[in-house]
Amino acid sequence: MTTVATKKIDLREAQKDQSMEKQKEMIAGNFTRLARAPQTGEKVSYTFVPGNINELVMCFDMVGNFPEINALQMGMRKKSGNFIFDAERAGHSEDVCTYVKTDLGMVYNGNIGPTGERLPEPDILLLSYTGCFTFLKWFELLRHQYKCPTVMLHVPYQGGGKITENMRKYVVKQLKEEVIPTLERISGVKFDIDRLREYLRESARAEDDLVWVLQTARHKPSPIDAYFGGVYYVGPIFSAFRGTRDATEYYRLLRAEIQARIDAGLGPVTPEGNMGEEKYRLVVEGPPNYTNLREFWKMFYDDGAVVVASSYTKVGGVYDFGFRHDPEHPLESLADYCLGCYTNMNLPQRVDMLVNYINDYEADGLLINSIKSCNSFSAGQLLMMREVEKRTGKPAAFVETDLVDPRYFSAANVKNRLESYFQMVDQKRRAA
Fold first, then answer.
1. pTM, to two decimals
2. 3-state secondary structure 384-430
């Protein structure tokens, strides 16, 4: 019996390496393509993760650069602190989003990307506004820096809690009259709607597999961690690869790997190997801390805590509630995608989502990681926490870190709060 189990695990680990290597190759390839753009003549667009219209950008043979991705990559490489300091020394406030300051610090230091290659200047700044006012100021600063064209896709906020036909038409009108003509002019490539439809078909295939992967957390034990592991799972589909065959292949590989873990009765893979016994099942609200991601994660799996659902893995698209990119209605589909991103949802919608996750995934409670410099997530979180507790009867807790600023991660403080929270969960169980 032991020999058979070992063989299964070895096979699964080989498959896991396959998907991880696939993602590494994809990311490295995009950075290389960016670095070579001045020589190849490819046009470069800078845009953001939430509400990005990557399939449309690809129709114009452009290569995409994502400032948030660069910032979090620098955070994971322990390089963001110096960039933040340089931005603050240049006059930017301590309270400004640390993604912004990391990006500006990179610019001030030659704009060397995470792979050590210089990132090219943008030919266009493509701003798709989805609930984060910081994006507007961020691109204003970059426009001042690069003196390049900027096109804005204004996305109405879901203040009423639903997407209306007027909202959809408003976004589509901008795509037709502002965004597409500007991309044609900058790239010199004529828009082909059939090409867009093919990219959207690829997106939908990848989205199906991503949702399958995320929903495997309903199993006990959960074969995935939907927060720390989820950061890696959503990477390709939230950035320059959605709509590509590479992304479709990545999620096909990932799905096969997770199925193998389910078949073997295994929990998530952690940086130290297979997680041990699953003791706590949590739902997490808020982004992770990237400068200390592994240390933060270790505090969870050392105590047997696995995250079965998270709001952060919906920041680039809420797929598990039914949305898919639709090639039969391409521009309307892009509009619905932008309108439906997590940061464009109102607080009651966010509460509903968290309550749904706690009930559907049979979680023990909610943990909020409040990010010091991210108002898009942090505003209203205490209210959300109280409402979720009231509606589910499950305990909630609150920790505080930051996106990529190493000054705002106190390991001792976070660990103490987590241990107190796990004790609270145990007490609730005994009382029940």
1. 0.93
2. HHHHHHHHHCCCEEEEEECCCCHHHCCHHHHHHHHHHHHHHHHHHHH
Give me the CATH number covering residue 50: 3.40.50.11890
Q: Please, what's the largest Cα pairwise distance for the chain?
A: 67
- CATH number, domain of 396, equals 3.40.50.11900
207 and 168 inside one domain: no
Q: What is the C-alpha to C-alpha distance for residues 90 and 93, in angstroms, rounded to an integer?
A: 9
Tens digit of pLDDT for each residue in 341-400? Answer: 999 999 999 999 999 999 999 999 999 999 999 988 888 999 999 999 999 999 999 999
C-alpha to C-alpha distances, 138 to 46, 102, 134, 289, nearest whole angstrom: 11, 11, 6, 21
Whether residue 210 is contained in a domain is answered as yes
User: In the chain, how many domains are there?
Assistant: 2
Sheet holding 305-310, edge to edge: 305-310, 280-285, 365-371, 396-401
The rounded Cα 164 to chain-centroid distance in angstroms is 25
Residue 275: domain span = 195-431
- Shortest CA distance to 396 belongs to which of 375, 381, 411, 378? 381
